[in-house]
Automatic annotation (TrEMBL):
Lineage: superkingdom: Bacteria
UniProt entry keywords in alphabetical sequence: Hydrolase
The protein's name: Diadenosine tetraphosphate hydrolase
Limits of the HIT domain: 1-103
Keyword Ion transport attributed: no
MF annotations from Gene Ontology: hydrolase activity
Lineage: Bacteria, Pseudomonadati, Pseudomonadota, Gammaproteobacteria, sulfur-oxidizing symbionts
Organism: Solemya pervernicosa gill symbiont
Length: 141
């Protein structure tokens, strides 16, 4: 049975789920930063998914990246599946700008997370949801 890793649950807001992945937003207002987590148990790597799930992941990732690019006028989208600290397979999607606090370096470990206030969190979620070209379903708890 799928369970979201406690660190992801602690660091993120859950926005919903696509056919395969749970969609999260990192609680760091410095960047529009979203994470896809395939709802499959005990996975660490993309190649551990079966072929159909790999294709579905690429489809969902591409749709998310496109929505982020449009919603936030991103200059670059960083997509990464690192998993060095959180072993559960998860894929980061981060809108980057030459003016962001970590540019051009990776965002990890550069600056402490800047938690969202309620207004900005809700605005950022709405901006993304307005651009998604696929349905987002509620997460069954």
């Amino acid at each position: 049975m799928f369970q979201l890793h406690p660190q992801l649950d602690n660091d993120c807001f859950t926005l919903g789920r696509f056919e395969l992945c749970r969609l999260l937003m990192m609680n760091d207002a410095s960047y529009p930063w979203f994470i896809l987590v395939p709802e499959r148990s005990e996975l660490r790597e993309i190649h551990h998914l079966d072929e159909g799930d790999q294709q579905q992941l690429i489809s969902e990732s591409s749709a998310l990246a496109s929505a982020i690019e449009t919603a936030f006028a991103a200059e670059k989208i960083n997509v990464a599946a690192l998993g060095n600290l959180v072993p559960q397979l998860h894929i980061h999607h981060i809108a980057r700008y030459a003016s962001d606090p970590s540019w051009p370096a990776p965002v990890w470990g550069k600056h402490p997370a800047k938690p969202y206030n309620d207004r900005l969190r809700d605005e950022r979620i709405e901006q993304l949801l307005d651009q998604l070209q696929r349905p987002l379903y509620p997460v069954d708890c």
